[in-house]
């Protein structure tokens, strides 16, 4: 009988993308027997309202330490699927989480490692990109050592919400400032880029769970829409009813800035690299896997929707510390 993924445990459910993922799972609750999150005592204390709201919505909250095998194995009890949304500094720690599932939790059938971003195996050069190393180590571990537990890598490309936002700290990295009506476009402005709204990351994840055979043991390359920096600007100008001030950071300049950032130990260096990869076309495919998991353009946000949401929330910063 084909695998059914019905009892889901989320790690990192109160994080940047975890919040969207748990929200979509709650919306689709009827498809699942059980939803649970595993979180730390400090999150329970600091984010008491969010945790309470999850419990009110029928989500079981399990508290413990993600690096403690006994705590994690206890949390795995009663689940068949683990959705990891842990942040960048916990990516490599997932190797233990996957090993414990493989060796000691026969009920865990599928693990979704924390991906939800740039395709770390896009092409031959990907293996050398510094920001990809931790996620590549997780994939290599799965390839070499995991035989029973299935995996799905949900590769969404950049989040639309962040790419079309302002980056006041460093606008030369690409920025759309709704208040000032000012944009800095990357590359020529005509280079295509595929984006996924954070709402759609959750929706696509639920679609992957509902299509367990199609999503089994593979990277799913999905997105909401494909656009260009100039088309994003044109849509902002249309919806705000005015022309914006525009400047550009060419691909060559972006590469120079990226090199300097790594050499000077800039904490944003990984963001320079990711934005260079996206500008070079590292989010573009002949075909996506949207249809494979039953997702059609009408199920997903459009550029117009993303810009409407950005304007109605009055623009947010493209990233906070730690978002990559
Ligand atoms: N495509 C994009 O544009 C984009 C942008 C940002 C991130 N991402 C990707 O999305 C994934 C999740 O990133 P995120 O930014 O959503 O993560 P985040 O908000 O930084 O962290 C997510 C969660 O990780 C959990 N965690 C547990 N122990 C931790 C520790 N020691 N240090 C840090 N976190 C710990 C926390 O869970 P609790 O909630 O239980 O406390 C935290 O809320 C990553 O793979 C990242 O690369 C993609």
SSE diagram, text form:
Blueprint: E1 7-11, H1 18-27, E2 34-39, H2 41-46, H3 48-56, E3 60-63, H4 69-76, E4 81-84, H5 94-104, E5 110-112, H6 133-145, E6 150-155, H7 160-163, E7 175-177, E8 182-186, E9 193-195, H8 198-210, E10 218-221, E11 225-227, H9 229-240, E12 245-249, H10 251-263, H11 269-279, H12 303-312
Parallel strand pairs: 1-2, 1-4, 2-3, 4-5, 5-6, 6-10, 8-12
Antiparallel strand pairs: 7-8, 9-11
Helix pairs in contact: 1-8, 4-5, 5-6, 9-12, 10-11
Bound molecules: NADP nicotinamide-adenine-dinucleotide phosphate.
NADP nicotinamide-adenine-dinucleotide phosphate is lined by residues 12-18, 39-40, 43, 66, 85-90, 114-117, 156, 158-159, 162, 322-324.
CATH homology group of the largest domain: NAD(P)-binding Rossmann-like Domain
Q: How many DSSP H or I helices?
A: 12
CATH architecture of the largest domain: 3-Layer(aba) Sandwich
CATH class of the largest domain: Alpha Beta
Q: What is the 3D shape?
A: globular
Q: SSE order in H/E notation?
A: EHEHHEHEHEHEHEEEHEEHEHHH
Specify the biggest β-sheet.
7 strands, parallel
- Report the end-to-end length measured between terminal Cα atoms: 39 Å
Low-confidence stretches: none
Ligands in the structure? NADP nicotinamide-adenine-dinucleotide phosphate
In what order do the strands lie side by side in the largest sheet?
3-2-1-4-5-6-10
Helix content: 25-40%
**Mean pLDDT over the full residue set:** 96
Given the helix and strand composition, which structural class is it?
alpha/beta
Radius of gyration, rounded? Answer: 20 Å
Do you know the CATH topology of the largest domain? Answer: Rossmann fold
- Approximately what portion of the residues adopt beta-strand conformation? 15-25%
What is the number of E strands? 12
Number of domains: 2
GO molecular function: oxidoreductase activity
Protein name: Isoflavone reductase family protein
InterPro entries: NAD(P)-bd_dom_sf, NmrA-like, NmrA/Isoflavone_reductase-like, PCBER-like
Keywords: NADP, Oxidoreductase
């Amino acid at each position: 009988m084909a695998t059914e993924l019905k009892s889901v445990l989320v790690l990192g459910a109160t994080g940047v993308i975890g919040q969207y993922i748990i929200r979509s799972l709650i919306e689709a609750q009827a498809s699942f027997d059980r939803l649970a999150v595993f979180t730390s005592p400090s999150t329970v204390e600091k984010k008491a309202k969010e945790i309470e709201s999850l419990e009110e919505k029928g989500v079981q909250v399990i508290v413990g330490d993600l690096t403690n095998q006994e705590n994690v194995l206890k949390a795995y009890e009663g689940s068949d699927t683990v959705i990891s949304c842990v942040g960048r500094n916990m990516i490599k720690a997932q190797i233990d989480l996957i090993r414990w599932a493989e060796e000691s939790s026969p009920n865990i059938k599928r693990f979704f490692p924390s991906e939800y971003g740039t395709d770390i195996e896009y092409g031959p050069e990907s293996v050398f990109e510094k920001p990809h190393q931790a996620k590549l180590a997780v994939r290599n571990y799965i390839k070499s050592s995991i035989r029973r537990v299935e995996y799905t890598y949900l590769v969404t490309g950049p989040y639309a919400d962040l790419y079309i936002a302002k980056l006041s700290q460093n606008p030369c990295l690409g920025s759309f400032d709704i208040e000032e009506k000012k944009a800095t476009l990357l590359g020529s402005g005509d280079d295509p880029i595929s984006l996924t709204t954070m709402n759609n990351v959750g929706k696509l994840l639920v679609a992957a769970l509902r299509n367990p055979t199609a999503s089994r043991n593979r990277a799913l390359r999905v997105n909401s829409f494909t656009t260009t920096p100039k088309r994003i600007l044109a849509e902002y100008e249309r919806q705000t009813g005015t022309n914006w001030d525009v400047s550009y950071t060419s691909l060559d300049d972006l590469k120079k800035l990226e090199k300097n950032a790594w050499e000077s130990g800039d904490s944003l260096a990984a963001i320079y690299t990711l934005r260079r990869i996206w500008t070079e076309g590292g989010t573009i495919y002949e075909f996506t896997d949207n249809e494979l998991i039953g997702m059609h353009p009408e199920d997903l946000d459009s550029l117009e929707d993303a810009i409407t949401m950005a304007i109605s929330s009055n623009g947010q910063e493209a990233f906070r510390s730690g978002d990559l």
